[in-house]
Amino acid sequence: SYTMVDPRFREIYFQFYKETYKPSVLDRKTKELVAIGASLAAKCQGCLEGHIKKALKFGATREEISEAIAITIGVNAAAIVDLTDIAAENTGIRLFDGNGTGDSGKTQSEG
User: Going by C-beta distance under 8 Å and a sequence separation of 6 or more, which residues neighbour residue 12?
Assistant: First the structure.
Protein backbone atom coordinates (compact mmCIF):
# COMPACT_ATOMS: atom_id res chain seq x y z
CA SER A 1 0.00 0.00 0.00
CA TYR A 2 1.21 3.48 -0.77
CA THR A 3 0.04 4.43 2.73
CA MET A 4 2.92 2.33 4.08
CA VAL A 5 5.59 4.22 2.11
CA ASP A 6 7.12 7.55 3.13
CA PRO A 7 5.74 10.26 0.81
CA ARG A 8 9.23 11.23 -0.43
CA PHE A 9 9.82 7.66 -1.65
CA ARG A 10 6.38 7.54 -3.25
CA GLU A 11 7.22 10.74 -5.13
CA ILE A 12 10.51 9.27 -6.35
CA TYR A 13 8.65 6.17 -7.55
CA PHE A 14 5.93 8.19 -9.28
CA GLN A 15 8.51 10.38 -11.03
CA PHE A 16 10.42 7.31 -12.21
CA TYR A 17 7.21 5.66 -13.41
CA LYS A 18 6.13 8.78 -15.33
CA GLU A 19 9.59 9.10 -16.90
CA THR A 20 9.48 5.55 -18.26
CA TYR A 21 6.24 6.25 -20.09
CA LYS A 22 7.37 9.47 -21.77
CA PRO A 23 7.94 9.31 -25.55
CA SER A 24 11.21 7.55 -26.34
CA VAL A 25 12.68 4.95 -28.66
CA LEU A 26 9.89 2.51 -27.71
CA ASP A 27 6.37 3.44 -28.68
CA ARG A 28 3.67 3.29 -26.02
CA LYS A 29 2.12 0.06 -27.33
CA THR A 30 5.48 -1.70 -27.10
CA LYS A 31 6.02 -0.34 -23.58
CA GLU A 32 2.64 -1.75 -22.53
CA LEU A 33 3.46 -5.16 -24.02
CA VAL A 34 6.74 -5.18 -22.08
CA ALA A 35 4.81 -4.10 -18.98
CA ILE A 36 2.42 -7.04 -19.41
CA GLY A 37 5.37 -9.43 -19.30
CA ALA A 38 6.90 -7.62 -16.33
CA SER A 39 3.56 -7.64 -14.50
CA LEU A 40 3.25 -11.39 -14.97
CA ALA A 41 6.82 -11.98 -13.81
CA ALA A 42 6.24 -9.75 -10.77
CA LYS A 43 2.89 -11.45 -10.06
CA CYS A 44 1.17 -8.06 -9.89
CA GLN A 45 -2.51 -8.61 -10.71
CA GLY A 46 -3.46 -4.94 -10.68
CA CYS A 47 -0.48 -4.08 -12.86
CA LEU A 48 -1.36 -6.84 -15.33
CA GLU A 49 -4.97 -5.75 -15.70
CA GLY A 50 -4.00 -2.10 -16.06
CA HIS A 51 -1.33 -2.79 -18.67
CA ILE A 52 -3.60 -5.07 -20.71
CA LYS A 53 -6.19 -2.28 -20.82
CA LYS A 54 -3.52 0.28 -21.75
CA ALA A 55 -2.05 -2.01 -24.41
CA LEU A 56 -5.46 -2.29 -26.04
CA LYS A 57 -5.93 1.48 -25.76
CA PHE A 58 -2.61 2.07 -27.52
CA GLY A 59 -3.45 -0.28 -30.38
CA ALA A 60 -2.18 -3.70 -29.34
CA THR A 61 -4.08 -6.57 -30.89
CA ARG A 62 -5.29 -9.64 -29.02
CA GLU A 63 -2.63 -11.59 -30.86
CA GLU A 64 0.15 -9.22 -29.77
CA ILE A 65 -0.97 -9.39 -26.13
CA SER A 66 -1.21 -13.17 -26.37
CA GLU A 67 2.31 -13.39 -27.79
CA ALA A 68 3.68 -11.16 -25.02
CA ILE A 69 2.06 -13.50 -22.49
CA ALA A 70 3.43 -16.59 -24.29
CA ILE A 71 6.95 -15.12 -24.27
CA THR A 72 6.63 -14.50 -20.54
CA ILE A 73 5.49 -18.08 -20.00
CA GLY A 74 8.54 -19.29 -21.92
CA VAL A 75 10.96 -17.12 -19.96
CA ASN A 76 9.43 -18.22 -16.66
CA ALA A 77 9.60 -21.87 -17.71
CA ALA A 78 13.26 -21.40 -18.58
CA ALA A 79 13.83 -19.82 -15.16
CA ILE A 80 12.34 -22.91 -13.52
CA VAL A 81 14.61 -25.15 -15.58
CA ASP A 82 17.57 -23.00 -14.56
CA LEU A 83 16.66 -23.23 -10.87
CA THR A 84 16.21 -26.99 -11.05
CA ASP A 85 19.53 -27.34 -12.91
CA ILE A 86 21.21 -25.52 -10.04
CA ALA A 87 19.37 -27.67 -7.47
CA ALA A 88 20.41 -30.84 -9.31
CA GLU A 89 24.02 -29.67 -9.36
CA ASN A 90 24.01 -28.63 -5.71
CA THR A 91 22.36 -31.83 -4.48
CA GLY A 92 23.91 -34.29 -6.90
CA ILE A 93 20.44 -35.66 -7.64
CA ARG A 94 19.50 -36.50 -11.24
CA LEU A 95 15.98 -37.86 -11.62
CA PHE A 96 16.33 -38.48 -15.36
CA ASP A 97 19.21 -38.74 -17.83
CA GLY A 98 18.81 -35.11 -19.00
CA ASN A 99 19.10 -35.69 -22.75
CA GLY A 100 15.39 -36.09 -23.30
CA THR A 101 15.62 -39.76 -24.29
CA GLY A 102 14.28 -41.32 -21.15
CA ASP A 103 14.53 -42.15 -17.50
CA SER A 104 17.82 -43.34 -16.05
CA GLY A 105 15.81 -45.06 -13.31
CA LYS A 106 17.98 -43.88 -10.45
CA THR A 107 19.47 -40.81 -8.92
CA GLN A 108 23.12 -40.01 -9.49
CA SER A 109 23.81 -40.85 -5.84
CA GLU A 110 22.50 -44.40 -6.45
CA GLY A 111 25.13 -44.86 -9.16
Answer: none
Alpha-carbon torsion (61, 62, 63, 66), positive or negative:
positive
Is residue 37 within 8 Å of 55, Cβ to Cβ? no
pTM of the model: 0.79
Residue-by-residue DSSP string for 4-67: GS-HHHHHHHHHHHHHHTSSSSS-HHHHHHHHHHHHHHHT-HHHHHHHHHHHHHTT--HHHHHH
Residue range 37-59, pLDDT digits in tens: 999 999 999 999 999 999 999 99
At 105, the pLDDT band (50, 70, 90 cuts) reads very low
Q: What's the CA gap between 106 and 97, in Å, rounded?
A: 9
